[in-house]
Known about the structure:
mainly alpha, 2 helices
Amino acid sequence: MSFENTVTAHRDFVKHLHRELAMRLNRIDVTSGRRVMYEFWDTRLIFEKSWFARLNYVHQNPVKHGLVR
């Protein structure tokens, strides 16, 4: 398997995952066509500071949107 095939397979997997998740969540909420996944980026985190920034974002985003205290 070449590196290019791995990247393509990963991108296709994430695309499929986002589509399935959106469809299932919209079915649960009885909402049609709502966008669930707005943005996805795949980056290699090589600096500890970048890793902590992403971790902080993941923890604070639900707070910011009022989903949790």
